[in-house]
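dude i think i finally got it to work??
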Amino acid sequence: MFHLLVALYLLLMVAAGWRLFAMSWSRMLKISAAVALVIPIPMLFLLPALMQPDRPFADLLRAIGIALMLGGGVSLLGGMAGAWLRARKA
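look at this
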């Protein structure tokens, strides 16, 4: 079940990146929207680990949160790159 949720999160980030590139917003607004899309799910893992670092599995929670944040950012950039390549080809 966990693998399915991670895959769904990453696919949604690709779709969000594709959609963000297609919008006619300013670059700063697109970057702030991308950060607002990527940050919330990893913070569910990072905040407990950062608030109570002496608890068991805090290092595992921190690693999962960082991996989700990096993976979400790369997926979002991948969606933006795909949309950019598609717009360039057309």
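The chain has four helices and no strands.
im so relieved honestly
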